[in-house]
Amino acid sequence: KLHQFYSHHLCTPSRGSLLTGKLPIQIGLQHDEVIQPMSPWGLNLEYKLLPETLQELGYETHIVGKWHLGHYMFDFFPTKRGFDSFFGFVTDQEHYYNHTYSFKIMEKRWSDLVSSDPDDFTVVQGREGELSTIIYRDKVRDLIEAHDVDSPFFLYYATQNVHGPLDEIRDMTLFTDAQSKAIQAIQNPERKVFAKLLGALDHAVSDLVKTLKVNGMWDSSVLLLSSDNGGCQYGGGYNNPLRGGKHFLFEGGIRVPAFISSPMLPTSVMGTTYTGLFHISDVYPTIMGMLQQNLPEDIDGISQWDALLRKTSVYPRTELMHNIDYWAIPTTSTTLQMMTHPRAAYREGDMKLILHHWALGWYAPPINTPSSEGEKLSGRSSISRPDNEGIEDCADPPKDHAALDFLFNISADPHETRNLVNLTEYADTVQRMRARVMEEAKRMVIASWIAEDESSVDTWMMTGFVVPWMVMPGGSQL
Fold this sequence. Notes:
The protein is globular. The protein has two domains: 317 residues, Alkaline Phosphatase, subunit A (3-Layer(aba) Sandwich); 121 residues, 2-Layer Sandwich (Arylsulfatase, C-terminal domain). It is α/β, with parallel strands linked by helices. The protein starts with a strand and ends in an 18-residue tail after the last helix. The strands form four sheets. It has a five-stranded mixed sheet with strand order 5-4-3-2-6, sandwiched between helices. A four-stranded antiparallel sheet has the order 10-11-12-13, covered by helices on one side. Strands 1-9 form a two-stranded parallel sheet. The protein is 23% helix and 17% strand.
C-alpha cells in the first residue's frame, strides 16, 4: 500500500504526469481546465511518453479505457505516441451504457468509443446497452490471451469507473455476496450507485489478475493501481476525513488510494505500507528502476524502486511541487490571462504550503437520508436521470470565500484542520517555502489551454462520434 501517493487535482494533468514523468507545470497542464470534447489542444507532441520508451525496450504496449490527453488531431492519439493499440474513449467522461458524452454539445449527444492502431482509427458502433466496464474487461482479456508470454507486455488500463455520470449497474452478478450485501445496506441512493460502480471496478481488476494467471503471465507481472484525482462530492465521491476534493489542492483532491502488487516482490514487503512521499510522476522512473534502465535526464519524477524493496532506509522524495497555476479565464474572454498571485501548493517534508486558495471544507455523505451533500450543494442529484444529462462538476469554488494562504503539518494534521500560516514561529518556514514556489514558477512552461473549437462538430456530424477534426501540416491524414 502506498500511504502517501499523490496524483493531481484533475484527470488531464495526472495522466500527463504519469506518462511523461514530469510535473504539470513542465508540460503545460497546470491550469484548472481539462481537455473538453471540442478542445483543440493536448499534451504537447515534443514530450516522449513512457510507452515510447518501453517500445524501444521491446515491449508490446496497449491502452484500454480513457485517454484524455488530446484528440483534435490523430497525431495526439495514443497509438501515435507509443501505444500499439487503443480501445476506449478520448474525452473526460461519458455514459457507461450508451457511450455518449455526458452533456449535450450543440443540442446533440455525441458518441465516444474508438479503436486505433498507429495507422488509423475507427469508431466502435453497435455496443449501446453494454456496460463499458465489461467491454473493457473483455478487450483486456483478448490482449492478454493473444500475447506471446515470452515477450514483454505493458498495459495502461485506464478504467472509466468511478467517474461520473453515476449510471446504475444493472448486473448484480458482477458482485460477490459480501459486496451485494454491503451495497444493499447503503441507504443513500447516490452512494449506493457509486458503490456499484466501485464494485464493478473491483470485478474488472480481479478479472485482470485472473486472466494473467490463466495465461501464465502473473508470476512475472507488476500491478500498480491508483486514482487520478480525489473524489467529487457532486458525483458520489467523498474524501472525508481528508479536506476538499477534486479540482482543489487540499489533501482530499490530490492524495489518492494506490498500491503495488506483484509475486516478484520480496515476501518481506508484501502486505506492508510504504509511507514515503510518492508522486504520480514517479511511476515512469520507478518502472525504469525496476527494469534497471537509465532514467531520462529531463524528468521530474524519482525512482522509488529501491526504497519500495527496502534496499535503502531513506525515502527518495523529500519535496513535491503539487501545482502552480498563474492563469485565469475572464468571463468576457476566451484567452488565458496571468494572475498576480498563483494558486499553488508545495510540500516540503512534513509541511505543506497552499497559496491563494479557497477555504474548502470537509465533505462527508449522510448515512440515512435520500440526499447527499453533493445534492444539497448543487441543487441536483448526480445520479443519471431519464433525460440522460451529465452531473454537476466540482470546479466552482465556495461562494463568498476569499482566496487565502495555508500552512499545515501533514504528518501531525493530515486532515488540514489547523492553519499555521500566520503563526510567528512558522514565519521562516512560510518564507522559505514561498520562495521555493516562486523559484519553480520561473522555469514552468505556459499553460496549453485553448478555447473550444465549435468547428469540430462539422466533422463529428459524419459519424455522430467525437473524432479528430484537424490535420497537422505534413502529419497524419484522416
